[in-house]
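User: Sequence in, structure out. Go.
Assistant: Echoing your sequence, followed by the structure tokens.
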Amino acid sequence: MGKEVGKSMATVDERVKKIIAEQLGVEEEEVTPEAHFVEDLGADSLDTVELVMALEEEFEIEIPDEDAEKILTVGKALEYIKEKA
């Protein structure tokens, strides 16, 4: 249950940035709101699918495909998670 303690201490922004950095193999400093997953962070289509799955698991939400297709930047991911979680 140590994971639950960590969740409450970290902000949504921190959690999202950490997941993106881990999934895409980039430094957290590169994960800025303006950063585009494909163009700036080097993600491919499989990376983006895995990223959506990781966000769904972390925040216990479901992100429909039509929504996932619109989440192209870190900022959009943050907005979506804050709205749905």
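User: And one key feature?
Assistant: The two ends are 20 Å apart (CA to CA).
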